[in-house]
Design goal:
Residues 1-30 are annotated as: Disordered. It holds the Pfam family Dpy19. Keywords: Glycosyltransferase, Membrane, Transferase, Transmembrane, Transmembrane helix. By secondary structure, the protein is mainly α. Among the domains are: 410-556, no CATH class; 564-720, 3-Layer(aba) Sandwich (Rossmann fold). Helix content is 68%, strand content 3%. Helix 10 runs parallel beside helix 13 and helix 14 packs parallel to helix 16.
């Protein structure tokens, strides 16, 4: 046992471990001092070079995505309205609040306009800071106003350069995480190169700049790096406190900038829970991480004026349940194998029951229904019964919320990333299973005869070296977020970026190669070190040779933004409608209307509100089979002055039958769908034709209520009659 403890603490190289211990005693003291000084200088030099490489790669990534954005749109040459239109769907909505703060007479007036907003949803006054995660836009607008840069930098460039700058932070965080896991910055270099060469699957920042995930994921990567460092053994108390502070700040910023924060942190909390139950992470540090998650989320809740969706999140209920359960069950890690398994099962059941009870109680008290569409979507997605719910089907029919396409893996395989990832994942999973069994059956080991204890502990020691706490966390992290990505394509960016980290760590890990070579009976210390450095270098050379020409071609390809129909529509609205006019239409288009014209909307793409979802379904009756009287009455109930109809929705061909917007509306209304194909038996023909098609015929029942005032190849704008 003494020898085994010594090996755990030993920090030398494999070569040093293989030398007889007597040699260390006969070395002259001057030689020891010289070796210590040389090793220290080498470490300082390595950290310096590694840090410079990390910063350089981060900056290069920022310049790379910024150049791609410029080359794709010719952003510097197009008009202001075209720049704003390029912020599609919800991106335009978020950017509109930055523009609103910039154009306000003062910071105080701008904040007042956000807290008492009556232009985002007609006939309603809402608090934007409560409903949406736009504090980043508020902070940037204030920063732009107080810095002396207005003469040199346009507001839009200050905004997009900040997002591209965050990509530098993102890459540096991935680099550092891989470096911490493997012990060499060569691993970080490989992770960053994989992130860049797999850009199509690791980020979409260059064409969805204001999207919330582009703000949040860099901070999430920093948090993962800080947790990886926190889980290392032998940290000094000061180091541990500073790392906990870094985790808290990163968690807070991540939660503040993305409305889906609670779901991502819940997956992280589940990962910590699994590892702590299997005794693979120190309990004290895990408890601190639970508290940090709750504290960060509650602080965001306060800043968002006590947003009820945060208070009713599963994360807060789950973390509170774990802390309560740990207080009740203090002796989980004592007893034999069956005893511990029984306690563990009871602990898991207790946590699950407490989570459901606490969450249901909070939602009952707060009358919370803001997130019910998410659970309806999940229920339908995983086959717990078909649904006619309009909101759930709207998500189910979107490609982004479908399964991860198989061609993703072929792209990731082209850079060798997927092959390496599977190789590392296999060995790490096997090691994790062995370690988990060893931890659960520790008292079983005590019953083994003395002659077999040494062999048993030697095998177990190999697993401990292979799966340290920081590696164990990153293993379960990549597995859980991989499952999320496989089930929901939009979430793949959380997985693929960490895939770069995990694969590069394994390829540069002494422990992984040591275990691999021992499995095929080829292990020597020298061979391990040669492979540890040669394989990553060969991989880097291969990536450079294969993808460098493609990157250069991509950077030299010049395109230009072109959407004349939307530009014409926005210019007409600004020139021919009053500033107080209220517009109805699709969520995606109206976000652009608000940004480009400042007009009032009936609905918008930020879907995390039950009243807004009901309102959107009503507005979308313009694409259903309804009478002109019904549509006019619905639109006027929301104060609508103008309605915009889009041919791309009315005659949609992008989705198959059953997933077109008009089909979803027909099903929700109980009407038979258009076109050839089956219908559910209880669906009936509508008494009226489709509104968006029939209104273009200018028949009297329609012209009484609607007057066409604008038309081009894509859009038709109708003014509503104001009947008494």
């Amino acid at each position: 046992m003494t020898t085994i403890r010594q090996r755990r603490v030993e920090k030398g190289t494999e070569a040093a471990e293989d030398q007889p211990s007597e040699e260390k005693d006969v070395k002259p003291s001057g030689k020891i001092l010289s070796d210590h000084t040389g090793g220290k200088l080498w470490n300082i030099l390595s950290i310096t070079v590694g840090g410079i490489v990390a910063i350089s790669l981060g900056l290069l990534t920022s310049v790379y995505v910024a150049t791609l954005h410029e080359n794709d749109l010719w952003f510097s040459n197009i008009k202001e309205v075209e720049r704003e239109i390029s912020f599609r769907t919800e991106c335009g909505l978020y950017y509109s609040y930055y523009k609103q703060m910039i154009q306000a007479a003062s910071i105080q007036q701008g904040l007042h306009g956000l807290v008492y907003d009556n232009k985002t949803e007609s006939v309603r006054t809402i608090n934007i800071l409560e409903r949406m995660n736009v504090y980043q836009e508020v902070f940037l607008s204030i920063l732009y106003r107080i810095l002396p840069i207005q003469q040199y930098l346009e507001p839009v460039y200050f905004y997009i350069y900040t997002l591209f700058g965050l990509q530098a932070l993102y890459v540096i965080a991935l680099y550092v995480t891989s470096w911490l896991l493997s012990g060499t910055w060569l691993s970080g270099l490989l992770a960053a190169c994989w992130y860049i060469t797999n850009r199509v699957d690791t980020t979409r920042v260059e064409f969805t700049i204001p999207l919330r995930e582009n703000w949040a994921l860099p901070f999430f990567a920093v948090q993962i790096a800080a947790i990886t460092y926190l889980l290392r053994s032998h940290l000094q108390p000061v180091q541990e406190r500073l790392t906990l502070m870094a985790v808290f700040i990163a968690t807070f910023l991540f939660s503040l900038t993305w409305q889906f924060n609670q779901f991502m942190l819940l997956i992280q909390a589940v990962a910590l829970f699994i590892l702590e139950c299997l005794d693979m992470l120190p309990t004290a540090k895990v408890m601190w991480l639970y508290i940090i998650q709750i504290s960060g989320l509650l602080l965001v809740c306060v800043l968002q004026f006590f947003n009820s969706m945060i208070l009713g999140s599963l994360l807060i209920s789950f973390n509170a349940s774990v802390l309560i359960a740990r207080t009740i069950q203090k002796n989980l890690k004592k007893g034999g194998l069956l005893n511990r398994l029984g306690k563990l099962i009871l602990h898991v059941l207790l946590v699950l029951c407490l989570t459901l009870l606490i969450n249901k109680f909070i939602k009952k008290i707060l009358n919370l229904e803001s997130d019910e569409h998410i659970f309806k979507f999940l229920k339908a997605k995983f086959g717990f019964g078909a649904t006619r719910d309009f909101d759930a089907n709207l998500y189910l029919c979107e490609e982004a919320f479908g399964l991860l396409p198989l061609n993703t893996f072929s792209r990731l395989s082209d850079t060798l990333l997927f092959y390496v990832y599977v190789f590392v994942l296999f060995f790490m999973t096997v090691a994790a299973a062995i370690v988990a069994f060893r931890n659960l059956s520790f008292y079983f080991f005590c019953l083994i005869s003395d002659s077999n204890q040494v062999q048993f502990m030697e095998k177990m020691e190999e697993c401990i070296i292979t799966l340290k706490p920081d590696a164990a966390y990153n293993l379960i992290h990549t597995v859980l977020f991989g499952c999320l990505a496989l089930s929901t394509m939009r979430m793949k960016y959380l997985w693929t970026s960490h895939m770069c980290v995990f694969a590069s760590f394994g390829l540069c890990s002494t422990e992984v190669w040591k275990l691999t070579l021992k499995c095929i009976h080829l292990y020597t210390s020298q061979r391990t070190h040669v492979i540890k450095y040669s394989v990553p270098i060969i991989t880097l050379l291969y990536i450079s040779y294969k993808f460098w020409p493609g990157i250069m071609d991509e950077l030299s390809e010049l395109r230009e933004f072109y959407d004349p129909d939307t530009v014409e529509l926005m210019n007409w609205i600004k020139s021919n409608t009053p500033n107080t006019a209220v517009f109805a239409g699709s969520m995606q288009l109206l976000a652009g209307v608000k940004l480009c014209t400042g007009r009032t909307l009936t609905n918008h793409p930020h879907y995390e509100d039950k009243n807004l979802r009901e309102r959107t379904k009503q507005i979308y009756q313009i694409y259903a089979k309804r009478s002109p009287e019904d549509v006019h009455r619905i639109l006027r109930s929301f104060g609508t002055d103008y309605v915009i109809l889009e041919d791309s929705i009315c005659y949609e061909r992008r989705h198959s039958r059953g997933c077109r917007l008009r089909d979803l509306l027909d099903i929700a209304n109980g009407h038979i769908m258009d076109g050839l194909g089956e219908n559910e038996p209880d669906l009936k023909p509508s008494l009226y034709p489709r509104f968006c098609e029939e209104i273009k015929k200018n028949l009297p029942p329609y012209t009484i209520h609607f007057t066409r005032v604008f038309q081009n190849k894509t859009f038709h704008v109708y003014k509503l009659a104001k009947h008494k």
